[in-house]
Amino acid sequence: MKKIALTFTVAITMFSCSSVKNIDTSSIAQATSLLSSLSSNSTVQQITSLFNLLDTDNSDSISSTEAIGSVSDNFDVLDTDSNSSLNLSELTGLLDILK
Question: What CATH number has the domain bearing residue 51?
């Protein structure tokens, strides 16, 4: 329950920030919903969907400013090559964190 509340709090905060006014808020809402539904039984396909929703600038990576919720909370752990962005392979590490 804490994870869901925190995820929605992050989403609401992002909606209110002027720096994200150009971001498609429906994508963030979908990402928030998907992120809150992830569990140890989640699939790589769900992580791929999350990746596509979070990669708002279509750079094939997720920056720390694009990350929300548990992705943001675990960004440094997931960023195994320490390049300050997450590729799809690194984001799948979220499945290990959820176990």
Answer: 1.10.238
User: Considering the entire predicted model, what is its pTM?
Assistant: 0.74
Q: Which domain, by its residues, includes 49?
A: 2-98
Q: Pairing relation of β-strands 85-86 and 62-63?
A: antiparallel
**Token output for 59:** 């750079």
Residue with the two structure tokens 């997450």? 86
40-55 pLDDT, tens digit per residue, is 899 999 999 999 999 9
Cβ(68)–Cβ(54) under 8 Å?
A: yes
Taking every pair of Cα atoms in the chain, the longest distance, rounded to a whole number of angstroms, is 36
Asked if 36 contacts 43 with a C-beta cutoff of 8 angstroms, the reply is no
